[in-house]
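Bit of a strange request maybe. I'm writing a small parser for structure token strings and I need a real example to test against, not something I typed by hand. Could someone generate the tokens for this chain?
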Amino acid sequence: MDFMSAIVSQIPVQVQIAVFMILSILVLVFIFLIFKYGSLWIQAWLSGAKVSLWELLGMTFRKVNARIIVSNRIRAMKAGLELTTSQLESHYLAGGRVQNVVLALIAADRANINLTWKTATAIDLAGRDILDAVQTSVNPKVIDCPDPRKGRETVDAVAQDGIQLKAKARVTVRTNIDRLIGGATEETIIARVGEGIVTTIGSSITHKTVLENPDNISKSVLAKGLDAGTAFEILSIDIADVDVGDNIGAQLQGAQAEADLKRAKAEAEKRRAMAVAREQEMKALVEENKAKVVLAEAEVPKAMAEAFRHGNLGIMDYYRMKNINADTSMRDSIARGGELKKED
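Reply from user aminoacidic:
Good idea to test on real output. This should exercise your parser:
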């Protein structure tokens, strides 16, 4: 002790004060770390997922929620997954949902699904719910076709005999993890299944064939491989209900007959208008011919005068012609009188 006291006594007072202040600061920092991160550090240490106090302090400076990182690292270690704090922090800083990814990895590991950390984080950052995808891969879910939330209750199609059928289908799907990034969503599955139902019903000779064997629809649609390019694998397509709708063929025939009737009426009206126009043309032609007759009659006296001047017509010939005209006029008067009596 005398030796240590001698050494300390030889150190300048200023140096002693500086060393004391540095040690005090270190002690205060240590106390602060213990006070703020002690519970997390002890929890991680006791769980076998060791995290140093300096790592916890670094998380604070990087604005990372240390509790989320530590709790999820403990969860992963207890499930037998080796995830470092660096991996968890990088995904957190990238805006990912760390807890969802860790839970998804645990669920995939328990279900023997090949899901790596890189794939899981990529799916999460792409905006997909990786936990829901894994759960759907383990427990397939049922999709209604059509989606009732879109305002339609049935898929309507018309068989070749003109009868409308209204069908409802239930599609059982399982998530395909490998195609989850870039794969089409449920809406594509619903649209494709609806199209397949319409095609199958439309190719049926009669609606009775569909009603007798509705499973033919599901078999035909399932054979088309509608899950290609989607994030799902279709396990089954079940026709829940098929109802008979309207007689579309009869409605179309009625509409066609009405259109034909309107067209025939239009043609008849066209012909009537043409007949009226022709009648007016004939009346005008009659008046024109009457005018020509009047003009021709006006030429008769001129011709007679010319005949008298040239000696081609004598006075007796003139009187004979007058007698003939008078006789003709009398006969016409008698004929007209007889017609009037008949009309009375």
